[in-house]
Amino acid sequence: MKNILKTSVALVSILIGFTSCNNSGKSNGGSGALASNVAEKVYVPPGEYDSHYAFMSGGYSGNLTVYGLPSGRMFKEIPVFSQFPTNGYGYTEETTPMLETSYGFVPWDDSHHPDISQTDGVLDGRWIFINGNNTPRIARISLTNFETEEIIEVPNSAGNHSSSYITENTEYVVAGTRFSVPVPQRDMPIKDYKGNFKGALTFISVDPEEGHMDIKFQILMPGFNYDLSHPGRGKSHGWFFFTTYNTEEANSLLEVNASQNDKDFIAAINWKKIEEYVNNGGGTMMPANYAHNLYDEDTHMATSTMKKEVRVVNPSEVPGAIYLLPTPKSPHGVDVDPSGEYIVGNGKLSANLTVHSFTKMIDAIENKEFDGDAYGIPIIKFEDVLAGSVEQAGLGPLHTEFDGKGNGYTTFFISSEVVKWKLGTWEVLDRKPTYYSVGHLTIPGGNSREPFGKYMFAMNKITKDRYLPVGPEMEHSAQLYDISGDKMELLLDFPTHGEPHYAAAIPAEIIMNNVKKIYRLDENEHPRKATNESETKVVREGKNVHIYMTTIRSHFSPDNIEGVKVGDKVFFHVTNLEQDFDVPHGFAVIGANTAELLVMPGQTRTLTWEPKQVGVWPFYCTDFCSALHQEMQGYVRVSPADSNLDLSWSLGE
Amino acid sequence: MKTLLKLFTVLSITVLLSCGGKEDKKKDSSSESNSPKTEKATQTPAAKTETAAKTQEVKPSKRVDLTTKGVGPIKSVTLASTIDQDMAAKGAEVFKNMCTACHRTDKKFIGPAPTGILERRTPEWVMNMILNPEGMVKEDPLARELLIEFNGSPMANQNLTEAEARSVLEYFRTL
């Protein structure tokens, strides 16, 4: 017993020793003249702007958050796949269609990989796309109004994870399935997975003017798991690369059974070849059911349309379009360097980083040097496609970005670090710890042809002791590094919202001058707008009562409404008459079973209210709008269901 | 016990004193301006009361100031002797869409009625008030007084173009 005690005391002291070492290490790195120097690098004085926008996926928040770099200040949360009571997104009549799917109304998702639209391989800052992982969807968010404008569901897909990456001219946003499933879905034994399930890789075309999305084709691949993807660029433009795991096609205990093969594959897809095949009538139209939800900025309303078929292509139909590149071991991220030559497979169960050569791949294809096939898809010999390996770089490589100066930066999840290495020589140049367990990293433009390589930030899965404790549940942490010198320098920790997986970042000047400040009243085409107070009215249509209401600092018009009855469904169509930047008005009514409205200048939003009790019920403005904000209120009189009281409404009478 | 009581008393007094701090300061500053420190200081309160009396007599909305041009993009406006009816009609439309939420032509509503405004204000002042309400409230003394008269309700910047504001001004001439 005594011995045990002694041992534990010894153990505890060792542990304490370790912790204090860590602590002192930390404080050494962050004190004195050096620290103030670092502070200057992230300090943005009051009233001044950050140099970059960063858009972080929200993970299980389903949304997208907007940050400034280098300050790490959060500017906004943009609701995408999740209801957002803060402004009524997903609750209002105008926005609920955005969340319609073939499964009905789905008010949540798991958002993962934002990617900014590109022209000639360079970020153009028009739109940002992001995938919903759980109920497969792709969203397009406008970077002029920072609102979700479009969501398209992806049929035949499950766990929409190898998404949503953009080709060099935003020709396509690409969505790959993580889980293979029966295609079409049907009742069958799970154990018959192998050889029967399919993995759908979906190419969604993007209209160059409006950004509207449409599924051009789906490739029905063998039943592997498709983990991540990236487009080729420059010389490899026209190709798309997907990592796979579970090439064993296990259907249970994947933790063990999907890690049997020494190598899995990177699937290289010549999408231009398949596009040509499809343009010539190739592929098969297959019955399907998926939602296409589109928001119209003029009517301020979204509509949801169910699409009933999708074009599918089997790999065997287009010989020479798809190849498999063996890659050790269960590669997670696949990243293509700015020149398009190097394809980095981040084998997450490996210590080495495998880099393939696009030129060697093309040579091997031309020389037909294959190492057998999988379901008819040629496998290129590992040695024939390998450009080099970054040896013993760390444990558990996940993702790589590039600085445009010939260097790659790779995250290592297990060893909690970012490693900088040189393209071509594969030598490790620098490594810096992350706190803790880093997932993705982002360099502004770091997955495009022209990275803006001043900053890099790492998004960490574990926060632990980095901030004041706030109970068992914590926000994740991001860490900003200066990568302008030879060595990376840790500048800043900042908390993030939800779980940021990937993020996209861009110099502010590409976006900031195009950002909308108001919606023009004379462009408002909402069917139930009231763009001046003479257009306000209350109309009964059976049990539905439509209130055409306006707001301006600081009153509602009308603000006294009578003649509503128990059992009615009341629609408050609120138009904000303000035409000045940053003058929203809010609208909330007692007992509403939905949320509030936050109405931007010139916009119309509709709150639905079903009064259940007789009485006189107040509504008010929720957004402090002027010194008279507290006066911005009104009443609705609710009479019994059998009342004969006519509708009436007024303001100031 | 006694010492405790004493302590308590001292403490309470300290609290009271520190609570009163703010008011004292205010008093100080007001007494300062009242105290005949300099000649200027003696004059100021007199001038102040005069203005106050004036304000009581004539509300800012009724006051006539045909010289001040206000603060904003409009430096000079020339009004033709006859009203441009087309422009006025356009102005009426703009007024209806952008201004009637707070202004009625015939009566005080949230803000003042524009009828007869050019008998009290310069055309430049009117247009600057339309185009630059935030700047006017900050820098034009009369605009600031008007904000107080109208209950602190701010004049909204409805983002009119200069041409639209000019047409509204023309419409005001018809009222």
Automatic annotation (TrEMBL), chain A:
Location relative to the cell: Cell envelope
Keyword tags: Copper, Metal-binding, Oxidoreductase
Name of the gene: nosZ
GO CC list: cell envelope
Single Gene Ontology MF annotation: copper ion binding
InterPro entries in alphabetical order: Copper_CuA, Cupredoxin, N2O_reductase_N, Nitrous_oxide_Rdtase_Sec-dep, Nos_propeller, NosZ/Cyto_c_oxidase_sub2, WD40/YVTN_repeat-like_dom_sf
Lineage top rank: taxon: Bacteria
NCBIfam families tied to this protein: nitrous_NosZ_Gp (TIGR04246)
EC number(s) stated in the UniProt entry for this protein: 1.7.2.4
Name this protein carries in UniProt: Sec-dependent nitrous-oxide reductase
From TrEMBL, chain B:
Annotated keywords: Heme, Iron, Metal-binding
Name this polypeptide is given: Cytochrome c
Domain Cytochrome c: 86-175
GO molecular function, one term: metal ion binding
Species name: Subsaximicrobium wynnwilliamsii
Superkingdom of the organism of origin: Bacteria
Coiled-coil positions: none
Region spans: Disordered: 21-64
Low complexity bias spans: 31-55
PROSITE patterns: CYTC, PROKAR_LIPOPROTEIN
Compositionally biased spans, kind Basic and acidic residues: 21-30
